Amino acid sequence: MAFEMIVIGTSLGGLDALKVLLPGLPKRLPASVTVVQHRHKSSDRMLIEVLQQYSPMLIREAEDKEVVVPGRIYLAPADYHLLLEAGNSQGHSPSFALSTEAPVSYARPSIDVLFESAADVYAEKIIGVILTGASHDGANGLAKVKANGGLAIVQEPATAESRIMPEAAIASVGVDWILSLSDIAPFVVKLLAVRC
Fold first, then answer.
1. Deepest of 52, 72, 74, 146, by most Cβ within 10 A of its Cβ?
2. Is residue 196 within 8 Å of residue 125, measured between CB atoms?
């Protein structure tokens, strides 16, 4: 069974980490990528413009009710939780939902919220990745990814600008792989090639 979704969560140091990771994901990636980067609620589109310079894949901010398309990178909008909703029985693909519910782990968007909803939709067809960050957000979500049959990857804390988030994930989840930042994208591409 092929992987269909890669969810990535990051906070402090995330911009620099994504500049390293995203160039390694090829334009024709057979899965979708959804990213939560903690950012200020008044953050503008500059983050997408900066990241697009480093990625061969199209990057866009996810919109409410937007259908998920493989080969794209979706970024959680500032000040909204980003969730995934299952497609219906007529074969429609999963779609995004935006929420203004209260912050989770002091964050909106929350990594946990994205990962937990994505795990429910994609089950064993998902790869969860936790990168650098200065909070515990993402640990519970990655645990849900793993519990639902998906794969859990965490950035080696020694290669993270802030080790708190990777260490929290490692402490609470039986992660499948702990990798240096530069090894994550090539490893994910290899997994997709093997399982596709």
1. 74
2. no
3-state secondary structure of 144: helix
Rg of the chain taking only CA atoms, in angstroms: 15
- Helix H or strand E segment including 43: none
Judged on CB neighbours under 10 Å (0-12, 13-18, 19+), 3 is: buried
- Which tokens go with 35? 């990213």
Give tens-digit pLDDT for 54-86.
Answer: 999 999 999 999 999 999 999 999 999 999 999
Residues identified as active-site: 11, 38, 137
Q: Which CATH architecture has domain 5-195?
A: 3-Layer(aba) Sandwich (3.40)
Q: Is the whole-model pTM more than 0.85?
A: yes
